Amino acid sequence: MVKMIILIIGMLFSSATPIDLILEIPISFPIGINLEVPFFPQAPDGDWSQPWQDSCEEAAVLLAYYYATDKSPTKDEFKNDISTLVDWQNKNFGSYKDTNIEQTTEMLKAFETRNLPT
Predict the structure, then answer these.
(1) What number of other Cβ atoms are within 10 A of residue 85's Cβ?
(2) Are residues 56 and 25 in the same domain?
(3) Range of the domain at 7
(4) Which of 20, 45, 86, 115 is the most buried (most CB within 10 A)?
């Protein structure tokens, strides 16, 4: 809000363009951000056979979901959730491999609402 007010005042009393004024406002970014995201590899037991080899979307979605909902699943719960998502996708998309963003979004919504009939 303060930056916006400075920008408006600057525009009123200056011949500088809005971009010039924005560039003059010092902005600092943190060097890094470390989020406490629960982590499991997509092949939690080191078994890279199917479905684990092609469950990267499922793993990424689940880890983000766990973080956003403050859940700390066990490895077995994570494996079960991946299996649930794989089964749901096979039923609803005909395959779980290489889902696009729309399918991945639909999968996450179904998981979130537990609307996962098998």
Answers:
(1) 25
(2) no
(3) 1-31
(4) 86
Question: What is the pTM (predicted TM-score) of this model?
Answer: 0.69
Among candidate residues 98, 77, 94, 97, the one with its CA nearest the CA of residue 111: 77
Q: What is the number of domains present in the chain?
A: 2
Among 88, 94, 93, 78, CA closest to 113 = 88
Report residues of the chain scoring pLDDT below 70.
Answer: 1-25, 115-118
C-alpha separations of 73 from 3, 5, 38, 52 in Å: 42, 46, 8, 18
CB atoms within 10 A of CB 33: 6
Assess if residue 39 is contained within a domain.
Answer: no
